[in-house]
């Protein structure tokens, strides 16, 4: 019998999972993207773009497309999507796995300041420095728009939209990044403090190594909590094992 797996994507892990699933006999995979990136890379299997209309809309889609399992492999900060997926899976009785790479852990030489939100990060910045390297994505810049006395170097994949800081320079690029390049960037822009989300993974971790090497403070936004009673996997092999779709 064939199986249909819906992958809620947008991450490196989602891409890897889709490739692994497509390689398995009798497995059909559909990856759903939110559509926030204008030119996503090629994906194995079927691809859909756009929202479902909340948890109820997702539950209808799961039933109509005869989905046998759901893997939420969205970004660790995509809290609304994760909550909707958990509710839809519970409503339909379809097995679901949340694929979340582990978060970052500070070392003894790191100068990390943990916060629970972007506004809390913004409130802390004036006490840490005036030149800020902001790597929290293009959708959260409004939290920093009032800090007119600070200079922001903002790195995003897509162009940001207002409201955003007045004194701001934008770098449009996509990881992975190398520690040497990150150190060069921090020095060239005379960065005083780095702000990031606890996204985890290797693709963008080099900035943390560079900040440590330069003894710079780092403001780290904690991940939102996962819904209660969800099944989680830290990597693609673990997610595949939980899906139990048979051998490749």
Automatic annotation (TrEMBL):
Pfam families: CbiJ. The keyword Oxidoreductase applies. GO terms for molecular function: precorrin-6A reductase activity. The keyword Transit peptide does not apply. PROSITE patterns: COBK_CBIJ. Pathway: Cofactor biosynthesis; adenosylcobalamin biosynthesis. Keywords: Cobalamin biosynthesis, Oxidoreductase. Signal peptide: none annotated. One of its GO terms (biological process) is cobalamin biosynthetic process. InterPro entries: Precorrin-6x_reduct. It comes from the Bacteria. This is Precorrin-6A reductase. NCBIfam families: precor6x_red, PRK08057.1-2. It comes from Streptomyces olivochromogenes.
């Amino acid at each position: 019998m064939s199986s249909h797996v819906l992958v809620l994507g947008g991450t490196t892990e989602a891409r890897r999972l889709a490739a692994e699933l497509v390689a398995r006999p009798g497995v059909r995979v559909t990856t759903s993207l939110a559509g926030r990136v204008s030119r996503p890379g090629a994906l194995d299997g079927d691809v859909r773009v756009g929202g479902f209309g909340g948890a109820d809309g997702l539950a209808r889609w799961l039933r109509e497309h005869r989905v046998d399992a759901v893997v939420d492999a969205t970004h660790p900060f995509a809290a609304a999507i994760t909550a909707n997926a958990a509710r839809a899976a519970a409503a339909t009785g379809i097995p679901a796995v949340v694929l979340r790479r582990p978060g970052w852990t500070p070392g003894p030489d790191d100068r990390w300041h943990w916060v629970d939100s972007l506004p809390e990060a913004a409130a802390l910045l004036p006490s840490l420095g005036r030149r800020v390297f902001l790597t929290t994505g293009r959708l959260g810049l409004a939290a920093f728009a009032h800090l007119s006395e600070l200079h922001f170097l903002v790195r995003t994949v897509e162009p940001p939209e207002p409201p955003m800081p007045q004194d701001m320079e934008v770098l449009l690029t996509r990881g992975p990044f190398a520690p040497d390049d990150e150190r060069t960037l921090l020095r060239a822009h005379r960065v005083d403090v780095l702000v990031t989300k606890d996204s985890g993974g290797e693709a963008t971790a080099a900035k943390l190594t560079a900040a440590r090497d330069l003894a710079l403070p780092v403001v780290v936004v904690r991940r939102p909590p996962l819904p209660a009673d969800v099944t989680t996997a830290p990597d693609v092999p673990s997610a595949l094992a939980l899906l139990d779709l048979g051998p490749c």
